[in-house]
From TrEMBL:
CDD domains: PGRP. Its EC number is 3.5.1.28. Residues 1-26 are annotated as: Disordered. SUPFAM superfamilies: N-acetylmuramoyl-L-alanine amidase-like. Keywords: Cell wall biogenesis/degradation, Hydrolase. Residues 83-212 form the N-acetylmuramoyl-L-alanine amidase domain. InterPro entries: Amidase/PGRP_sf (IPR036505), Amidase_domain (IPR002502), NAMLAA_amidase_2 (IPR051206). Pfam families: Amidase_2 (PF01510). It catalyses: Hydrolyzes the link between N-acetylmuramoyl residues and L-amino acid residues in certain cell-wall glycopeptides. The keyword GTP-binding does not apply. This is N-acetylmuramoyl-L-alanine amidase.
């Protein structure tokens, strides 16, 4: 009988010498390994698809031009370059509110969020007098936290003012923002606590300091809890 040819390579097969382990994978091992690799690829692809769900046609929630998620908010659209269209919470769970400070005026914040070159925007902007503008639907991922995972799972609220000026944070602003945060917590079943309502500075990897030492967290959270109870 002549030498056999292996199916995998077409080269001559050599029997191992006595005492020599045959380290060549058998056909079954290759098949099993190939199946495992294929399964791994499928699982990875499925995981990736779960994060690209927003790209697939026919899965968007119904949208209406000018519609807002928070009653009383004024709709002012941010540039589409400053967000990623999504279908939250179906594709990404929402379990955080991130509090920001604009380091500028309300108008300047609105302007930069409408600028496609800025590459950042929050869902809401709260003015000193308590006025609320919604610039991105909560369905969509806003580029506001500087952390992709936190962007995908959070709603961002900007507040007019400066971190170094305690006078930026007015009674009207605190009250209005607290009602907004309470409504978001109620909508997504989030506990009203400092694990789920955080400052920009608390986002992992963030290089920002807002809302800063003058933001009164005890006061704010008390107002949020009161507003949340009123919604029950």
């Amino acid at each position: 009988m002549g030498d056999e040819l292996t199916e995998e390579t077409g080269h001559e097969a050599r029997a191992p010498a006595e005492g020599e382990a045959d380290r060549r994978p058998g056909r079954r091992a290759l098949l099993v390994g190939g199946a495992a690799a294929a399964l791994g690829t499928v699982l990875l692809a499925r995981e990736e698809l779960s994060h690209l769900w927003w790209r697939l046609p026919g899965v968007d929630h119904a949208r209406e031009d000018g519609a807002v998620d928070y009653r009383g908010a004024q709709w002012i659209a941010a540039s589409s370059a400053n967000l990623r269209r999504a279908d939250r919470p179906d594709d990404y769970q929402i379990d955080r509110v991130v509090v920001h400070v604009t380091q500028g005026s309300y108008r300047s914040a609105v302007n930069v969020f409408q600028d496609p070159s800025h590459r950042a925007a929050a869902h809401y902007v709260v003015r000193r007098d308590g006025h609320v503008a919604q610039m991105i639907r909560e369905l969509d991922v806003a580029f506001h936290a500087g952390n992709r995972q936190y962007n995908e799972r959070s709603v961002g609220i900007e507040h007019e003012g400066f971190v170094e000026k305690a006078s930026s944070f007015t009674d009207a602003m605190y009250a209005s923002s607290a009602r907004l945060t309470a409504a978001i917590c109620a909508r997504y079943g989030m506990p009203v606590d400092r694990t789920h309502v955080i400052g920009h500075a608390e986002v992992p990897g963030a290089d920002h300091t807002d809302p800063g030492r003058h933001w009164d967290w005890d006061r704010y959270m008390k107002l949020v809890r009161r507003a949340r109870t009123a919604l029950a």
